[in-house]
Specification:
The chain has helices spanning 9-19, 34-41, 59-69, 85-93, 107-117, 143-150, 160-164, 166-170, 182-188, 198-213, 225-233, 244-259; strands at residues 24-29, 47-51, 75-79, 98-101, 152-157, 177-180, 218-221, 238-243. The protein is α/β, with parallel strands linked by helices and 271 residues long. The protein has a single domain (9-264), classed as TIM Barrel (Alpha-Beta Barrel), CATH 3.20.20.60.
Length: 271
């Protein structure tokens, strides 16, 4: 029996814009654990970011996490480590429908990434879907013909140079959304670790304006609730509001502070 794939992140963003007055809330999966991913997927969040850039998540883990999340009404995105055509081909063939590509700083770089997610003659994606999870091993009718409809592309603006070129990046045909990373943006501005510095926030907001002017949705990473609310108020279409590893770290620290304060702790071995 022919299979149908899930709606893409592009489709979900469009539906949300048409029906509900709130941004889509997402969480990062950085642990590499399919079990942790399943817990996040069932939480009620709208989307998950499976982070292949700053975590130990590789190709086999991506497949397992996508499978774990598939039972829940959540849209998974996979962040590849770079806009490399081979890596993108492998992640797409593994069944990722929604890609987030980091560090895109110009329209030329955006066009290169778009080519990596499209089959010839419009792009450079290698053809292997008959053997791959992407087409469910040829159980999705006409996958090759309709592949563009099954894949969404979000690019990440993370540098001052990218902010300056945000309009051109967002306006690139094949870019479906833009995601702003304040941490790397701050670092590029000489403000390492100061994601809420006024100059960084101003750069994020300039990007919002440029992307919206290009007719595309824009999101931002903001784990601090006050920063999240400020960006929501400024018109963010989707926001990343937490991560599995951060929730576990802060939650376990709170337990330790309540029940095992350092002043009362027994001597412990150091490794």
């Amino acid at each position: 029996m022919p299979l149908r794939l899930s709606p893409t992140f592009r489709d979900v963003l469009a539906a949300q814009a048409a029906t509900a007055p709130r941004p889509l809330a997402g969480g990062w999966v950085c642990s590499g654990s399919p079990l942790a991913a399943e817990i996040m997927a069932g939480s009620g969040l709208d989307w998950l970011l499976i982070d292949g850039e700053h975590s130990p998540i590789g190709l086999e883990s991506i497949v397992a996490i996508l499978q774990a999340a598939a039972a829940y009404p959540v849209t998974p995105l996979v962040r590849v480590p770079a806009g490399d055509v081979v890596t993108i081909k492998q992640v797409l063939d593994a069944g990722a429908q929604n890609l987030l590509v980091p560090m895109v700083s110009s329209a030329a770089e955006a066009r290169t990434v778009v080519e990596a997610v499209r089959y010839p003659p419009r792009g450079r994606r290698g053809v292997g879907s008959a053997l791959a999870r992407s087409a469910r091993w040829n159980r999705v009718d006409d996958y090759l013909v309709n592949a563009d409809a099954y894949v969404s592309l979000t690019v990440q603006i993370e540098t001052a140079d990218a902010v300056a070129h945000a309009a051109e990046i967002a306006g690139t045909d094949g870019v479906d959304a833009v995601f702003v990373g304040p941490s790397d943006l701050a670092a590029s501005m000489g403000l390492l670790g100061q994601q809420t510095h006024p100059d960084v926030v101003a750069g994020v907001l300039r990007t919002f304006d440029a992307v919206h002017a290009a007719g595309k949705p824009v999101g931002v990473n903001a784990f601090d609730p006050a920063a999240t609310q400020a960006y929501v108020d400024a018109g963010a279409d989707f926001v990343a509001v937490g991560a599995d590893v951060a929730l576990l770290a802060r939650g376990s620290e709170a337990l330790a502070a309540r029940w095992a304060p350092a002043s009362d702790a027994p001597p412990r071995a150091s490794y």
